[in-house]
Design brief:
A 3-stranded parallel sheet has the order 1-2-3. Strands 4-5 form a two-stranded parallel sheet. The longest helix has 16 residues. The protein is globular. It has 2 domains: about 80 residues, no CATH class; about 35 residues, no CATH class. The chain is α/β, with parallel strands linked by helices and about 130 residues long. Helix 1 packs across helix 2, helix 1 packs across helix 3 and helix 3 packs antiparallel against helix 4. The chain is built from 7 helices and 5 strands; from the N terminus they run βααβααβααβαβ.
Length: about 130
């Protein structure tokens, strides 16, 4: 029987960045054990958003590389995203409305007729109106 384990932003960052070394080592061992035992690692859109922002603003990773890194991580066998991030990342190229805005839109579009915002870039996305 397959089981799932949710992982948070800190665990994903240790897996992706390898620092700090002691925590990264534990994260790698945990990841390997899960893969060997058929345990699925589960992340959600909020974790993806936090990881993206940490990659950009804490680790100084260029936007394109951060996006590619997230796409690759979410495509890793044994990793599953509970949300819209894989689809949003597939169509986001790092310009215009940001990743967080696009994930907000993907989530709320399922629940609302339209969205409103003051953010010009966000308002350029389909289904968002300027307030």
């Amino acid at each position: 029987m397959k089981t799932t384990v949710g992982i948070d932003t800190c665990v994903v960052l240790r897996l992706l960045m390898g620092v700090p070394a002691d925590q990264a080592s534990r994260a790698y061992r945990f990841f390997s054990d899960c893969m060997r035992n058929g345990v699925v690692l589960l992340v959600d859109d909020l974790v993806v958003t936090e990881v993206y922002h940490a990659l950009l603003y804490f680790y100084g990773v260029p936007k394109g590389r951060a996006l590619d890194t997230l796409r690759a991580f979410l495509a890793t066998p044994g990793v599953r995203c509970q949300g819209n991030a894989p689809d949003v990342l597939a169509s986001y190229h790092g310009t215009g409305a940001g990743l967080a805005d696009r994930l907000i839109l993907a989530d709320l579009r399922e629940q609302a007729n339209h969205l409103v915002s003051f953010d010009r870039d966000f308002c350029r996305l389909p289904g968002v109106r300027a307030l």
